[in-house]
Each structure stands twice: as C-alpha cells, then as structure tokens.
Design a protein that fits this description.
Strand content: 15-25%
Helix content: 40-55%
Largest sheet: 5 strands, parallel
Distance between the termini: 30 Å
Radius of gyration: 18 Å
Number of strands: 12
Strand order of the largest sheet: 2-1-3-4-5
Structural class: alpha/beta
Length: 225
C-alpha cells in the first residue's frame, strides 16, 4: 500500500483528501503544515506528497524546496487556490511535479496521484523484478533462487531505492535523508553498515550487485545487461 502524505492546514480539506485517497486504496497520512510534514517523514516512509501552499509555520513552497535540497525524489503534488502564473511557476521551480488549483475535483486528484506514482517508476504492485530476483515492497521480502527472504525495514528500503534506479549514483547523505529522515542523528556510517549487510546476504546473487563509487556513494548494477 502506498503512503500518501496529505499536508493541509484546513481540517475539512485535509480530512476530505485523506478519506478519498483511503477509499482508493492508499494509506493517507495527515499533516497540518510543512513543519509537521517533516516530523512525519522522520518516522514514516512516504511515497508521494499532496501539499497545500498557504500554510502556517512552513508553507508548501518551503516544504518542497527543503525536500528537493535534501535530494528527496518522491513525487509532490501542490494543491492551492493561488492560480496566477507566477505562483504556478514558483511551485515548479521549488520542485513540485504537478499543480492543482482549488476547488479540487477529487476524482481528478486520484488520477493525478496515480499518474505521478507511475512516473516515479513505482509499479502498481510495488514490486521490482531484476532477473530472477523479486522485491515485494509491502511484505519487505526478497525472493532469490525461489527462496523468500524477509529483510529488516531499513535494509529493504535501501535495496529497493537502489534497484528502482539502476546505475544511478546515490550519495550516502541522500540515502540517509530519504530512508532515515532529514533530522536523524544517525551518521552516514550507518548506510555503510547496511550496504555491507546487503552485500553479504546477496553475495551469491547473479542478478545485481551494489557498487561503491569512490568519493560519491553507491549504485545498483544489473549483472545481465
């Protein structure tokens, strides 16, 4: 099940969006403003954000920019009453992926969420298949040589992220911010430890390998391509 973070200071709108998304099979998580959203993301893995712009404490522009500056790549859909071109332009320059103007047609909202998730290369089944290796996101399992292995949550998310974008280099800080949270007190050596554990567990895997890119970070490489 996809985790959708709904960031909206209006309680009625927040409840409406959460209810509609839940009715369509998503796990909707509410936040009252950008600062609250960041606190949620410290504890929850989020697949997509629906965010209002005009909010107290931290608005949608600030939230989006802070996430993009921290190398978060998850899709962001801005929802707002601000319909001037300059406002829309500012939203896209901050890093949003899509923009909807209130009043919102909730059916269209769901369609846009579905499209953004497809664009983010996340399959509707939340599975990744690399050769004979299958990653099942909801179960946190990896099937290798016909045997199912359950991974600790952080190890699975790390492997899933790398295999979602083969050959793409992720810095340790990028992985740290996205999987452990922007404000985690854990240092980057934790990423190294988890990478080493994954390498040990998949040392006999003929489908992929995790490569260290000296001075930069890590990438997953498919072996049979």
């Amino acid at each position: 099940m996809f985790n959708i973070l709904v960031v909206e200071d209006n309680a009625d709108m927040r409840e409406l969006f959460c209810t509609v998304l839940a009715d369509h099979g998503y796990n909707s998580i509410p936040a009252v403003d950008g600062a609250d959203a960041l606190r949620v993301m410290e504890k929850e893995y989020i697949d997509l954000i629906v965010a209002d712009i005009m909010m107290p404490n931290m608005d949608g522009y600030e939230l989006t920019k802070s996430l993009r500056d921290a190398a978060y790549t998850l899709p962001i859909l801005m929802v707002t009453a601000k319909d001037q071109f300059d406002d829309i332009q500012r939203g896209f320059r901050a890093g949003t992926d899509d923009y909807m103007i209130k009043p919102i047609n909730v059916k269209e909202l769901v369609l846009r969420v579905e499209a953004l998730l497809r664009r983010a290369k996340i399959s509707s089944e939340k599975k990744i298949v690399v050769g004979s290796t299958i990653l099942n996101y909801d179960a946190l399992t990896v099937t290798l040589h016909g045997k199912e292995l359950t991974l600790p949550q952080k190890e699975f998310y790390l492997l899933y992220k790398l295999l979602s974008y083969p050959n793409k280099i992720f810095t340790r800080q990028q992985l740290m911010d996205e999987i452990w949270g922007m404000f985690s007190e854990t240092d980057e050596r934790t990423v190294n430890t988890h990478i080493n554990r994954l390498r040990e567990k998949f040392s006999d895997c003929s489908d992929f390998e995790i490569v260290t890119v000296r001075g930069l970070g890590y990438k997953a490489v498919k072996k049979n391509e």
